[in-house]
Write a structure and sequence with these properties.
With 254 residues, the protein is of the alpha/beta class. It is 35% helix and 25% strand. The longest helix is centred in the C-terminal third of the chain and has 16 residues. It binds adenosine-5'-triphosphate and magnesium ion.
């Protein structure tokens, strides 16, 4: 598999907090890469820094060998990088269709074309039954799907999912995993952030672990879960990684 996204020595600090210290990782074409780590380890900062929300303090990001380091969000989206936010943030006063159409306008200035593209994404993500519902009225599970749908309407090559299954019950989570697999089969490579290890193991081809802004481990999901360094980072030396929906701490709203 060829490398789609190559990140080298990415750095980002916030007033003395080194959220990312020289993080390097590759995402292959077609891959679902798990990005895990305890609360505050730098996962969302990684997404924000690659997607253009934050400018990195150092390092490089190459997308299909094109240097995209530090580009703002709209430019990154045009290059094919999309993301969902840890806290869902649709335009609350707009319907599902309107929300997705706004995203689809990235690729066309014709409203009818954008709407047609939006309807395709809505069908793919299983939202056809609430196409005219105002987003503020959607239950959590539908809103998480809408996040995915809006990102998909940007026609990404790389889709970064920052806890896109948070707040879902086990059945909804399984359906969410199926949807991510479906999206991946359409040719989208995925960076998947999640605290529920069972979901990471079920979905990801490979996993990278961050701890305190540094890359701690990398490998197959099974190998990473058995890695003593990883277990210590999560649980301070206890012998088992969380395998159910228990979280290590409340997630920050980033
Ligand atoms: N906008 C910001 N301003 C200041 N500090 C920040 C900001 N964003 C992140 N940080 C800090 O950077 C560090 C990494 O945070 P980040 O949100 O990336 O962690 P995370 O791995 O996504 O955690 P979680 O699993 O809780 O979502 C933390 O110490 C956090 O407080
Ligand atoms: Mg986070």
């Amino acid at each position: 598999m060829s490398t789609l996204l190559k990140v080298t020595n990415l750095k980002k600090s916030f007033q003395g907090v080194h959220a990312l210290k020289d993080v390097s990782l590759d995402l292959a074409e077609g891959e679902i890469l798990g990005l895990i780590g305890p609360n505050g380890s730098g996962k969302s900062t990684f997404v924000n820094t690659i997607a253009g929300t934050f400018r990195p303090d150092g390092g490089r990001a190459l997308l299909q060998d094109v240097d995209v380091t530090g580009l703002p969000t709209p430019a990154m989206a045009r290059h094919g990088v999309a993301r969902t936010f840890q806290s869902s943030r649709p335009f609350l006063g707009m319907t599902v269709l309107e929300n997705v159409t706004v995203a689809a306008l990235l690729h066309t200035d014709r409203p009818a074309e954008a709407e047609a593209a939006a309807r395709e994404c809505i069908a793919l993500t299983g939202l056809a039954d609430c196409v005219d519902v105002t987003s503020a009225n959607l239950p959590v599970e539908r809103r998480r799907r809408l996040d995915l749908c809006r990102a998909l309407a940007l026609k990404p090559k790389v889709l970064m999912l920052d806890e896109c299954l948070a707040g879902l019950n086990p059945r909804e989570m399984d359906e969410g995993l199926d949807l991510v697999r479906l999206i991946n089969r359409t040719g989208v490579s995925v960076i998947f952030i999640e605290h529920v290890m069972k979901a990471v193991v079920a979905l990801c081809h490979r996993v990278v672990v961050l701890n305190q802004g540094e890359l701690l481990a990398e490998g197959s999901p099974q190998a990473v879960m058995r890695d003593e360094k990883v277990i210590r980072a999560y649980l301070g030396g206890s012998s088992k990684l969380c395998s159910t929906s228990k979280r290590s701490a409340p997630a920050t709203a980033t």
